[in-house]
Amino acid sequence: MALLRTIKRGRWLEAPAGKPGRAPGDALLDLQTRDNKLSVWVIEDDGSNLDEVVGSIALSREALSHLDYVTFELDMVAKLGLDVRESEGATPVLAANRWHREVVELSAEDVAELADDLFRRERARVREAEVKSIVAQLLGGAQVDVAQLDPNMFAALQKSNLLP
Amino acid sequence: MSVQVLEQESATVDEQGVGPPALGTAGPGGGRAPWILCSRHLHVGTAALNVVWAEQVVPIEGKCRLVLAGGDLLKYVLVSVGSRTGFGWQGESRPVVRPGLTLGCKASTSADIERDRELGVDQAEKAYLHLASIARDEVFEDGVLNSLSNGIPGFLLRFGPDGIEAIERLWDCKRLDGEVLAETLLWLGRVDSPATLGGRLGLLLKGLRDRSPRVRDAGALGLASLGDGRAAEYVRQAREQESIPELRAFLDELLQELGS
User: Fold this and answer.
1) Phi, psi (5° rounding) for residue B194?
2) Pairing verdict, β B43-44 and B12-13
């Protein structure tokens, strides 16, 4: 199993000048904690739940957009001495919320180390067209609690003819 | 007969010759004489706007060129319109322009016009700097609305191509930080603004050549949203010169999208 964290890939493209291999400071904007916890998602080894997780994250937003993410192994988290706990997600895709986790008791140094590790990994982008396709499948499969959609997202889905 | 430059703004005239509310308008019986905008931003609907007067109006690719007597070519003008037969309020607060309407007007010089255009761009710069200053305090997330996503549509509606020029000037003078510039390009690709399509495309292509990978990435994302096939050759050139593998891979995907 791996853990997925959404990011804004543009922030991660280049190390700061003179510091090769180090995550840029702006990357920390993608690792903001709340109560020293970082929100992440479990992805099965075969990637079978990736679309469901991507779609649920997309539907919890306000606008249809591409989605960037990075994945890392649970082993890596353990090596950094970090603790991952189950924590029910709050997306409109109720079945996907069970995949949500939190990395807890993070110190500032932990977050910086995590950033450096994630910087060395491959980062992925799900293009907007693909996100729409995943969302369409979730809506078509009646897996979305439409009442939980943000009004702007609701309007965006209507405009894209994904909702009546 | 001459044409007076009074102000400039974007305007779209539809088939019935009805445009948006004009500046300085007033209802019958009071205030200044109503004007319509006849500018380089003018988009002529499927029915040609045939304004007949001493000079010739030539709509060309969305621009309105007035050729004055004596050959003085103006990029744009605002026309003061008096009450004439066939023109009136019809109970609404905006003027109605019908094909064949004769307008009376005064002229100004090309220098006056250029000065007024610069004024428009200066105003647009100030407005965008204000938007950017609010945006600086925000943490942008993909798929989450922010002050730029909310502000750019209104900014472009108000300033049109002058707004695009203003953003470019701020960019060239490095008055927009990388995060704000990147987010700007993202939303320039998404906004629905036919009047600024060419300008937005230009800015996004400029983004592909920026020294900052974050801005290049945002330019590519903006072009993906815009979906304009004219960008394909530029994207191909950018791809050849791109040193960052992630960006190069995305440009490959973008090329496939634009190609289809």
Assistant:
1) -55, -30
2) parallel
- Structure token digits, residue B208: 């592909």
Which residue in A has a C-alpha nearest to residue B216's C-alpha? A10
Contact A61 B139 (CB under 8 A): no
Question: Residue B207: how many CB atoms within 10 A of its CB?
Answer: 28
Contact check, Cβ <8 Å, A10/B182: yes
**Element containing residue B66 per DSSP (H, E):** strand B63-67
Q: How do strand A83-86 and strand A100-104 relate by DSSP bridges? A: antiparallel
Give pLDDT tens digits along chain A (164 positions). Answer: 899 999 999 999 999 999 999 999 999 999 999 999 999 999 999 999 999 999 999 999 999 999 999 999 988 888 889 999 999 999 999 999 999 999 999 999 999 999 999 999 999 999 999 999 999 999 999 899 999 999 999 999 999 999 98
> The complex's ipTM?
0.93
In chain A, the N- to C-terminal Cα span, in Å, equals: 37
- DSSP assignment of chain A equals -EEEEEE-GGGGSSPPTT-TTSPPGGGGGGG--BTTBEEEEEE-TT-TTHHHHHHHHHHTSSS---EEEEEEEHHHHHHTT-EEEE----SSBGGGGGGEEEEES--HHHHHHHHHHHHTS-EEEE-HHHHHHHHHHHHHTT-B-GGGS-HHHHHHHHHTTS--
* Length of chain B in terms of residues written: 260
Residues A137, A149: Cα–Cα separation, whole Å? 16
**Cα–Cα distance, B131 to A90 (Å, whole number):** 32
Residue in chain A lying closest to B218 (CA): A10
Structure tokens at B191: 């906004």
Sign of CA dihedral B164, B170, B175, B178: positive
Q: Is B111 on the interface with A (CB under 8 A)?
A: no
Question: Do residues A65 and B143 lie in contact, with contact meaning Cβ atoms separated by under 8 Å?
Answer: yes
